[in-house]
Amino acid sequence: MGDDWGLPADEDPSRRRRWWVAAIAVAVVLVVVGAMTVLVRGDDGDRIGPDDQALAARRDGATTSSVTASTTSSTTTSTTTTTVPPTTAPPATDPPAAPPPRPPAAASAKKGVSVWDMTGLGAALDDVGADWYYNWASGPTSGAGGAAEFVPMIWGARSVNADELGRAKASGSTLLGFNEPDFDSQANMSVEQALDLWPQLEATGMRLGSPAVAVGGADAGGWLDRFMSGARQRGLRVDFITLHWYGADFSSAAVGHLRNYIEAVHDRYGLPIWLTEYALIRWEGGGSTFPTDAEQAAFVEGSTAMLQGLSYVERYAWFALPTPDDEQGTGLYRHDTATPTPTPAGSSYRAAG
Q: Which of 2, 235, 287, 309 has its CA 20 to 30 A from that of 145?
């Protein structure tokens, strides 16, 4: 029998030594292999993948890193290459997103505004997309710029003089007639007085709009009806009808009320229409009441779409571009801001066209 190591009793001692050497060599190999296995494991004992390498590259501030991962199944082997872009340490929180820019204002040869002086008037005119404006005067407003056409007006009897008429002729090609001559608080003129002064406006050679009555433009025997009858009798020229309209009904029916009025005036005189003041305001008890922002904005949207669709309406102008000092009222843009800031009605009006 052999000894305790499995060698025959008469085995050569040199063979025993060779066996021991071989056993020790095998043990060394096993130890080395084990150490290498530890080195290629992560902290949690899993294999380091491409995502871990990419994060390591980011922490090291590398500009670029290309990592290739191979996925092997029983039938296919695919290789995906991911390029890590340049990066710095991420901020603690993402910065707030910038507000989306407003779309450009709609263009329309019809759309205009009535204005008075305000901060950033020229920028507001440009922002709202007005093709034209007027200011109840014979010359343009300082600061309005040249983006919108200026249309002069001869406001009342005292404006019918050589200076005002000459300034109007130098400022535009179309002239607006007297402002609300049927109201005591405005031009306050009799029909006869307006007819007597009219030839001086006609002599400018400019295209000429009728006096803009405050109310009753379609009424038989009303101020405008008597003026137009007198103009025909005297052979005076009126190229288009100028109207003002303010609605006291703040409901969705307001657009229809405005359309009915304009159509009645057009049917009566058969001339193009310029609506140079309009909005929703209710006058009562010596004061004024305005609709909500949402009601005014909805009326702007509906009325401008209607006016754009009427072929005989040549131009229209909302009252007014700036807000008054004490209330928003019907204003389209805030009067006290350096950059154009539309009201809800202003946002609707800039989209019209």
A: 309
Spell out, as residue ranges, where the chain has pLDDT lower than 50. 1-17, 19-21, 23, 26-93, 95-96
Same-domain check for residues 272 and 177? yes
The CA distance from 339 to 265, in Å, is: 39
Count of structural domains within the chain: 2
Within this chain, do residues 37 and 164 fall inside the same structural domain, yes or no? no
Q: 203-238: per-residue pLDDT in tens?
A: 999 999 999 999 999 999 999 999 999 999 999 999
pTM of the model: 0.72
Give the E-state strand segments of 201-286 in sequence order. 207-208, 241-247, 273-280, 282-284
- Give the integer Cα–Cα distance in Å for 224 and 240: 12
Asked whether residue 292 is assigned to any structural domain, the reply reads: yes
Q: Which has the closest alpha carbon to 195: 178, 215, 171?
A: 178
* Residue 309's CATH number: 3.20.20.80
Evaluate whether residue 45 is within a structural domain.
yes
> Between the CA atoms of 185, 189, 220 and 227, what dihedral angle is there, to the nearest 10 degrees?
-140
Return d(Cα 304, Cα 71) in angstroms, integer: 63
